[in-house]
Amino acid sequence: MRNNIPNILHVQHLVQHTICAILHFLVDGLCLCCLYLLIPPSSTAGLIGIFITYNLLAFLTQPLTGHWVDGMKHKHQMLFMSILCFFLAVLATTFTIATGSQGVSLVSMVLIATLLGVGNSFFHVWGGKQVATTSANDMRALGVFVSTGAMGLAVSMVFYSWTLLYVYLLSISILSLFTMRDTPEVQGSSTTFFQQIHLKSTTTATVATLVLLFLFVMFRSYISEAFSSGISKTSSTILMLGALCMLGKMAGGWIAKHVGILKSMTAILFVVFICLMNLRTHWSVLLFGLFTINLTMPITLHLASRVLPGKEGLAFGILAAALMPGYLLSVSTVSFSATQTGWLTSTSAIMLWALLSTILIELLVLLQLGERRKNILLASIIINILTNVSLNYYLFFVSYTDTTVIIGEALVVLTEALCYYFFTKNLAQSFIYSLLCNAISFLLGEFFQLIFTALGT
């Protein structure tokens, strides 16, 4: 009888991983469907603003919600909170559209986008934590879980409707009942090749590895958008791209499991490089490149959990947050490539220059304040990538007014103070670091802008 227990647990976990993957499809589909019903895709201006609000909350909050779920005694509370957010968002959308004869108000749009973004953040870190812990950090399970979201987005982009929205919500509620209970945790460690990788457990090595993974995920997000943007978007191609991304993320874990991480990553990056060098030759190169770069998704998730044992939610959240800066930089490049005369004058180049200069200035400020801890200095790089790119993207593409700049900078100060507090455990010191770093980098940026303006005139 005892010999059957491991088999029973394996089946239970397999069923749970399948449910988590289906839920991922439904959750991402629900969020996009809800936003499209609120603001149709034809309303480009309104759609950009509301999508930025949603994406910033959905992705950039995941390190915080991931850290939160790691400390929860009952992990499924996070799933319950996400479902509550989705229920309120759907209810608010229905009420807003039914009563909004004069159009959708800004308050309603922000409220619904906030509920969807927070709910999405809650679900993703819950699902990432759940799959990682019950599969012993198996890349195959992680790949299957993250893969279905891309298809959910594609389906909603093509078939969004009120019927589909309610089907999403009902399906999420029913499936959650099957998984909203405590399940036995996997004890011990896997004996597979990729589980035998041992990384140094020092703080410096951990933070350095996470920074490298973070930058790689940024690169992957940037490259993925570059591949997909070269293909004209019709209903069939949207579904094809969603399926291709899903299959790539799903297959990556299986390939790395049997071939090995190092060999897989080397081969994948070589193929991606070849595709990048031949972008304009044929549309099939874009599709193959998109499929190949997505193979790395489960590998990076696996490695992040390896360097943060017991903090799988935080590891998942950090890499999820890294998707946004790469995506925003890529979108800015694509949006303005046809109208700019040179790379140095493009919006993406300006944003990249602002990012690099801000990172350098704030590192110098921290050093001047006497900060020598490597984990703090390395963390400041990640913090600046998240906040600087997001704020500049909003200013460039949505609203650039004095009020927007002031509110944006205030939010950045508060966000960075919270991030520094995660490392320093000293609220006053964290706030001082954030305030001084941002004030000096902002004033220097304004100073150089005035100089360049004067030289230009």
Tell me about this structure.
- The protein is an all-alpha fold.
- It is built from 17 helices and no strands.
- Helix 5 (106-134) packs across helix 13 and helix 8 packs antiparallel against helix 11 (283-294).
- The N and C termini lie far apart (85 Å).
- 42% of the residues are buried.
- The model is unreliable at 184-200 and 335-345 (pLDDT under 50).
Order of helices and strands: HHHHHHHHHHHHHHHHH
Distance from first to last alpha carbon: 85 Å
Beta-strand share of residues:
under 5%
- Which stretches of 5+ consecutive residues score pLDDT under 50? 184-200, 335-345
Strand count, sense and barrel status of the largest sheet are: none
Query: How many helices?
Result: 17
Shape: globular
How would you name the oligomeric state of the polypeptide chains in this document?
Answer: single chain
Helix vs. strand class = mainly alpha
Helical fraction equals over 70%
Cα-atom Rg, whole angstroms? 22 Å
Give the mean pLDDT.
81
- Secondary structure: number of strands: 0
Structural topology:
Blueprint: H1 4-38, H2 44-60, H3 62-70, H4 76-99, H5 106-134, H6 139-159, H7 162-179, H8 203-229, H9 235-259, H10 261-277, H11 283-294, H12 297-307, H13 312-336, H14 347-368, H15 374-397, H16 402-424, H17 427-456
Helix pairs in contact: 1-4, 1-5, 1-6, 1-7, 2-5, 2-13, 2-15, 3-5, 3-13, 4-5, 4-7, 5-6, 5-13, 6-9, 6-12, 8-11, 8-12, 8-13, 8-15, 9-10, 9-11, 10-11, 12-13, 13-14, 13-15, 14-15, 14-17, 15-16, 16-17
